[in-house]
Design a protein that fits this description.
0% strand, mainly alpha, ABC transporter involved in vitamin B12 uptake, BtuC, 13 helices, 306 residues
Length: 306
C-alpha cells in the first residue's frame, strides 16, 4: 500500500509542471497565438527561480522570479509577433533557442549548488490519513494550485463571457475586431499569461521536482506540453489525463530501474515521452476532432485595417 501511495504521489508531482505549462498554452492558443518557445521560457523560469531562492532563501520569491522571467519572455515574444507581426513559428523557435542558451550561461555558476531546506509539505490534518493522505495530500501546494488553475481555465473558456470573447478572437479575429473587441490587446494578455505559467512551471522543476539546477533540465517538457494541448484537442480534461500519464510513465521508469530490470537507460529515458505521444495520438486518431477544435486563426498574425 505504501509503495502504491508513493507511486501515485510521485505521478502527481511529475505531471504538475506539464499541467502548469499547459494551462498557459491553452489560453494563448485559444486566442490564436502559437508560441513554440515554451521550452526556452521554462528553462529561464527554472534558472531564475533557482537562483533567486539560492540567494534569498525564499521559495516564494523563487516562484515569483520564475513567473517574472516568463513575463519578460512573453513581453519579448508579444512585441515581435503581435506588435511587429513577425512570424509566430520563427519567433517561438528563436525564443526556445535563446532561452536554452541564456539559461545555460546564467546557471553555470549554480551547478551543484544546494537549496535551503523547506517546510514540510502536505495538507495538515489530511496527510496523516492512511494511504489516501500519503498518496494525495502529502504533496507541494503547487500540485493543487495546478489543478485549480486548470479548472479555472475550463470555467473561463467555456462558462464565462470573457472566455467566449477570447475564443471568438482565436476563431475569427476580423469579426471580433469589427464588433469592437481589441483583438491585439486580448492576444497580448493571453500571451503574457501563457508565458508566466511556463515560467512558473520551470520554477517548479528546479525548486520542487528536482531541487537543483542542471543545464537543459527541462528535458523537452516544453515541447511535450505543446503536443499535449494539441493532441488533447484543446480540452482541459484530456490535458490533465495526458499530463499525469507522462508523470506515471516517468515514475514507472524509475521503479523498473530500481527493480534492476536490464533495459538500456537511454530507452528508459525516452519511454515517458514516447508513451505520452503515442496515447495522445490514439486519443486524437480522428483528424476531424483536431480540425473541429483547433482555433481557426492559430499561428496567423492579425493586423487591423482602417
Amino acid at each position: 500500500m505504501s509503495l502504491a501511495a508513493s507511486i501515485i504521489s510521485s505521478t502527481l508531482n511529475a505531471g504538475t509542471p506539464l499541467l502548469i505549462a499547459a494551462v498557459g498554452i491553452l489560453i494563448h492558443e485559444k486566442s490564436g497565438v502559437l508560441n513554440l518557445g515554451i521550452e526556452g521560457i521554462m528553462l529561464l523560469g527554472a534558472v531564475a527561480g533557482f537562483g533567486t531562492t539560492l540567494a534569498t532563501g525564499s521559495f516564494a520569491l523563487g516562484f515569483l522570479a520564475g513567473m517574472g522571467a516568463g513575463l519578460l519572455c512573453g513581453l519579448l515574444f508579444a512585441f515581435f509577433t503581435i506588435g511587429m507581426h513577425a512570424n509566430q513559428y520563427a519567433a517561438g523557435l528563436a525564443l526556445a533557442l535563446f532561452g536554452a542558451g541564456l539559461s545555460a550561461f546564467v546557471g553555470q555558476p549554480m551547478q551543484g549548488a544546494a537549496l535551503p531546506s523547506r517546510a514540510e509539505l502536505g495538507i495538515p490534518g489530511l496527510e496523516s490519513i492512511p494511504f489516501v493522505g500519503e498518496a494525495f495530500f502529502s504533496l507541494h501546494p503547487m500540485v493543487y494550485v495546478a489543478l485549480l488553475l486548470m479548472a479555472g481555465v475550463w470555467y473561463f473558456l467555456f462558462k464565462s463571457r470573457a472566455g467566449l470573447v477570447l475564443r471568438a478572437v482565436g476563431e475569427a479575429p476580423s469579426s471580433a475586431y469589427a464588433l469592437g473587441y481589441p483583438v491585439r490587446l486580448i492576444r497580448f494578455g493571453a500571451v503574457l499569461f501563457g508565458a508566466v505559467m511556463s515560467g512558473l512551471a520551470g520554477a517548479y522543476l528546479s525548486l520542487v521536482y528536482t531541487p537543483l539546477w542542471v543545464e537543459g533540465m527541462v528535458a523537452g517538457r516544453g515541447w511535450i506540453a505543446l503536443a499535449l494541448v494539441t493532441f488533447a484537442t484543446w480540452r482541459p480534461a484530456r490535458v490533465v489525463v495526458g499530463a499525469y500519464l507522462f508523470g506515471g510513465v516517468t515514475m514507472l521508469q524509475f521503479a523498473l530501474q530500481g527493480m534492476g530490470v536490464s533495459v538500456p537507460p537511454q530507452f528508459m529515458s525516452m519511454t515517458p515521452y514516447l508513451a505520452t505521444i503515442l496515447v495522445l495520438v490514439l486519443i486524437s486518431r480522428n483528424p476531424m476532432w483536431i480540425r473541429l477544435n483547433v482555433p481557426a486563426s492559430l499561428g496567423k498574425p492579425f493586423a487591423p485595417h482602417g
